[in-house]
Amino acid sequence: MTAYLIRNVSVVGGAPTDLLIRDGVVAETGAGLTAPDATVLDATGLVALPGLVDLHTHLREPGREDAETVESGSRAAALGGYTAVCAMANTSPVADTAGVVEQVWRLGREAGLVDVQPIGAVTVGLAGERLAELGAMADSAARVRIFSDDGHCVADPKLMRRALEYVKAFDGVIAQHAEEPRLTEGAQMHEGEVSTRLGLTGWPAVAEEAIIARDVLLAEHVGSRLHICHVSTAGSVEVLRHAKARGVKVTAEVTPHHLLLTDEKATTYDPVYKVNPPLRTAADVAALRAALAEGVIDIVATDHAPHAVEDKECEWAYARPGMLGLETALSIALDVLGPQWDLIAERMSRAPARIAGLDSHGLDPAPGVPANLTLVDPAARRVIEPAELASRSRNTPYARMTLPGRIVATFLRGEPTVLDGKAVK
Predict the structure, then answer these.
(1) Which CATH class is domain 51-356?
(2) What 8-state DSSP symbol labels residue 316?
(3) Helical (H) or strand (E) element with 289
(4) Which listed residue (150, 284, 303, 335) is catalytic?
(5) How is the chain split into domains, by residue range?
(6) CA 362 – CA 50 distance, rounded (Å)
(7) Packing angle between helix 234-245 and helix 205-222, nearest 10 degrees?
(8) In Å, how far are 157, 188, 281, 311, 358 from 201, measured between CA atoms?
(9) For the CA atoms of 349, 97, 125, 227, what is the dihedral angle to 10 degrees?
């Protein structure tokens, strides 16, 4: 294993120092380190962050390898500064058994670019009718701890309660896609002034807020852990704030696109802007940004959702919802939050690692800590070119936008997966 001496790097925004990486861990820190056997990297002007952790990634394998594979998604993640991603269960077949989650976990290990932690389905086939093999997935080699029917809401309150009770035994988490389906039938975008003007069926904010309100009450009653996926409305923020003030064990995520883009994008009828939950209003975006800074929303999660060309380049009504996110998330966070490095490390690495129980991730670079880290050039600006993305899909809403920051290097257990902005393998 090669040793690396990273010189003059700012660790989470601190004063420049040196980092010596040896045998998979940060061996030493301090000014003027020497290591004759180490490969030297000049990191002057760069910031070292704990490797980013994404709690919400769609890798599409098995079943839709035309859109993404575990390997291609892992490469995109590494280029985005990630060292661990949690892979959602809506594959084909659905990740609702120990066999499927172990397959995804092994594919991640074989790729060796990031740690791929599978998320198990809550219900069999995501159908919302009966619980999947939660215990078997938890006991599998993949050690699943997060369960979600993402893309589908666990709408039955009795089933949701049973799921929360079940995972409590092993400190698991139910991650809910908050959408009351009876309020969103035929919905195409956010319900509001823009949808009325365009004549498109609206997806009302209350469809999200009602499920969150119900589920925080269930989680409080059971005493179990609940995570809310892709929060998108100001009303949801208020429900979460109230729940946290009461001590409910609830955490929440927001996506980069919900922090930046609004429902006005739908006026282009470009299906790249179709997503679930939909892009909301400028007032919602402002509330989400404030909640992220405050900590009412715990983390940024990408909801990286690659789609094949034929599923996106079609009429709006028939397009699949979802956007790419792994390779641009840190840049969006920098654009929204500015260079608040400690806050970015907390929202994009430490907190998601805690929620997922990934003990070797989310740790600031320090002696003895596993060398899972990323180096960022905060002064760089880059134009997003879809053809240059590592994902097999091209459905990025940031095409040809100029965004701040550039990932220079990513290390997974001391081995570089990205150097000089390029994937090592």
Answers:
(1) alpha beta
(2) G
(3) helix 282-294
(4) 303
(5) 4-47+367-423, 51-356
(6) 6
(7) 10
(8) 26, 5, 16, 20, 40
(9) -30
- Name the β-bridge partners of 254: 300
User: From CA 142, how far away is CA 137, in angstroms rounded?
Assistant: 7
**Per-residue pLDDT tens for 365-376?**
999 999 999 999
Q: What is the pTM of this model?
A: 0.98
Neighbours of 234 (CB within 10 A): 19
- By C-alpha distance, which of 123, 131, 303 is closest to 228? 303
Domain 4-47+367-423 has CATH 2.60.120.280: no
Would residue 66 show up in a list of annotated catalytic residues for this protein? no
The token duo for 291 is 């909640």
Neighbours of 339 (CB within 10 A): 14
Torsional sign, CA 399, 405, 409, 410: negative
pLDDT digits (tens, 9 = 90+) for 265-317: 999 999 999 999 999 999 999 999 999 999 999 999 999 999 999 999 999 99
Max CA separation in the chain (angstroms): 68
For residue 146, what is the DSSP state? E
Phi, psi of 339 (to 5 degrees): -75, 55
Give the containing element (helix H, strand E) for 25. Answer: strand 25-30
Cα→Cα distances 236→61, 243, 288, Å: 32, 11, 9
